[in-house]
Amino acid sequence: MAGPWVEKYRPQKLEDIVGQQHIVKRLEKYVTQSSMPNLMFTGPAGVGKTTTSLALVKSILGDNWRANFLELNASDARGIDTVRTNIKEFCRLKPVGSPLRIVFLDEVDNMTKDAQHALRREMEMYSKTASFILSCNYSSKIIDPIQSRCAIFRFAPIKGQDILKRLEFVTESEGFEYDETAIQSIVYFAEGDMRKAINILQASASMGEKITDENIYDVISKAKPQDVSSMVSKALSGDFMGARELLREVMVLQGISGEDMVNQIYQDVTKRIMGEKMADDIYMDIIEKIAQADFRIREGANPRIQLEALLAQFL
Ligand SMILES: Nc1ncnc2c1ncn2[C@@H]1O[C@H](COP(=O)(O)OP(=O)(O)OP(=O)(O)O)[C@@H](O)[C@H]1O
Ligand SMILES: [Mg+2]
Q: Domain AAA+ ATPase: where (predicted)?
């Protein structure tokens, strides 16, 4: 098992990128035209912004891509001045053996407003020799003058089904067996983030020959939804001691944190109201109690005591 799977299974070509079809289709036009405007990729973590940039750069720049490509991180530890010096030095040169030069700048939303204004001037100054690809999680943090100079591409969280297929592909390529439900659990916890999904998968695979539900819950340190559900059911039906025992098991033996427990209880209760398995007025009462426990735990109260008190109020 050499190296991280997220790198090993990073798609190299635009056509191999999972989901994001509408974006890939628009980008393929730039490849045909051998030119591109400044681009801005925005969206949540782990959905393919960097991957897509690299694939696009390789397609447009061809074999000489390394010589005509500069990758920088805007939150570089050495400071924004280093970033700008690098941009200037790179942009002074003409493209060699490629139609243009490309600067890829990651985490632009971490730049201060002043630094963004400076970046905007550089984009303007070098517009003849270089195109920029800017990547960020929140486009709202980017100043308007930069936004209006870029074609904006909004990356969406990856659909559960697409993540599922990808995880099965990776698992089979690596020669692991798996429980279907285990893969489904990963998809559930990854919340559209492919990087997170593949990382959970690899961590679970390192625990044995087969990828099972058990391994996954160990890796992500979340309680099993069934355990939480039966704990809530017990509390609601008046079996406080039963609920308390389950709580102890999950928190002490599995080491789940108080914050995660409150969240998972909230998710379970929400599922009940969505499935019309709980009356509206009971839900309103309960949600108030959950909110109180959540607040107190965050403020530093003892999570075991808060959670026991919460379950007691469910009775
Ligand atoms: N659309 C996708 N198709 C296939 N694999 C993907 C996709 N998106 C992400 N991955 C996997 O997740 C890893 C990380 O993706 P990437 O670096 O592109 O995320 P990102 O959107 O740039 O995230 P961040 O906002 O954290 O920079 C990739 O190496 C790849 O293995
Ligand atoms: Mg990235």
A: 35-159
Task: Summarize the annotated binding site for ATP as residue ranges.
Answer: 43-50
Beta strands in the chain (DSSP E): 39-42, 69-73, 101-106, 130-136, 151-154, 177-178, 210-211
Instruction: Please state, in angstroms and as integers, the Cα–Cα distance from residue 170 to each residue in 5, 36, 157, following that order.
Output: 8, 33, 19
Ligand 1 neighbours (beta carbon < 6 A):
6-7, 9-11, 17-20, 45-51, 137, 158, 194-195, 198
State the residue range of the domain holding 256. 225-313
Q: Which atom of ligand 1 is nearest to the CA of 52?
A: 18
Are 16 and 144 contained in the same domain?
A: yes
pTM of the model: 0.82
For residue 9, the ligand 1 atom closest to its alpha carbon is: 31
pLDDT in tens, 288-305: 999 999 999 999 999 999
Specify whether 213 is located in the same domain as 252: no
Report the C-alpha dihedral over residues 191, 218, 270, 251, rounded to 10 degrees.
Answer: -140
